[in-house]
Design brief:
By secondary structure, the protein is an alpha/beta fold. Strand 5, helix 5 and strand 6 form a beta-alpha-beta unit.
């Protein structure tokens, strides 16, 4: 099985060479550099990773550019476009021309009063579909209407909801309406979900067993071919350990079958972004 980490970030530990965005300080005690990540990936037998441009560096992609150029067989990039730029669509095209294979939408970056399904978001989402690249959504449940509006208008654009859609399970195992809404969104055939940020979502300690039923419900609703595994490095290092981020998959009960796990742990990501090392 080829393991691909569908969600992580890297940032430089030399802010003089690769500056952080204005006002940003060192985000974690744990290292977030690519060399450290590669050590952890090799130890966990992870073939490749999707680097999502970190907000630590804002819209300056130079460190991610450097990382992908140095290890092109191990890393693929998802860019971050400034929706307040003079021409966000042109910015997207330029980044795709540089080799980025996806774009992240973060509603917190939009102008006050604007939503992702407004003119800027619609133009970006439509262009991403024309370019054949997925849109990744960093959202909370209150943004689901925006996602569905975009998916309804541009059904051919591949899209991904990150981190279980930032739903959180109830402590008494009662149904969570926001998660049921995420399940219902499986009606959009090109919408995918990342199984990532387990430590943030869970009310429990490792292996975050209160998330297991949700994993199986998502498999039933979306199929394994529309789900992908992500560790959220470097945050996972302080939360549990990079290897533990992968061990969660082995602890899920009932167990995910071999054919399904092959898709979730790598196959879906390669279907959307292309093969690593290829």
């Amino acid at each position: 099985m080829k393991k691909i980490d569908s969600h992580l970030h890297v940032w430089a530990h030399d802010p003089d060479k690769y500056p952080y965005k204005q006002g940003q300080e060192q985000p974690l005690r744990a290292r977030g550099d690519a060399e450290f990540l590669l050590e952890l990936m090799d130890a966990a037998d992870v073939a490749g990773s999707l680097i999502v441009q970190p907000i630590v560096h804002g819209f300056d992609h130079s460190y991610v550019n450097h990382t992908i150029a140095k290890w092109p067989d191990r890393f693929i990039g998802m860019c971050l476009v400034d929706p307040q730029a003079d021409d966000p669509v042109e910015m997207l095209v330029e980044l795709v021309d540089q080799g980025y294979r996806g774009v992240r939408f973060n509603p917190a970056l939009w102008r006050e009063g604007e939503t992702m399904d407004g003119d800027v978001g619609r133009a970006l989402y439509a262009r991403a579909g024309e370019l054949g690249i997925p849109v990744g959504f960093l959202v909370s449940p209150h943004n689901y209407d925006e996602i569905e509006a975009l998916a309804d208008e541009f059904p051919d654009t591949p899209a991904i909801v990150d981190h279980f859609g930032h739903c959180v399970p109830s402590e008494n195992n009662s149904p969570v309406p926001e998660f049921q809404r995420l399940i219902s969104m499986a009606r959009h055939p090109n919408l995918n979900v990342k199984l990532s940020e387990f430590p943030r979502a869970s009310n429990q300690d490792f292996p975050y067993a209160d998330m297991f039923a949700w994993v199986h419900q998502l498999i039933d609703a979306y199929s394994a071919g529309r789900l992908m595994w992500g560790t959220d490095f470097p945050f996972i290092v302080e939360q549990a350990g990079y290897d533990k981020g992968w061990e969660i998959a082995d602890r899920i009960e009932p167990a995910i079958g071999p054919g399904l796990s092959d898709q979730i742990l790598g196959g879906t990501c390669e279907k959307l972004f292309g093969e690593w090392g290829g």
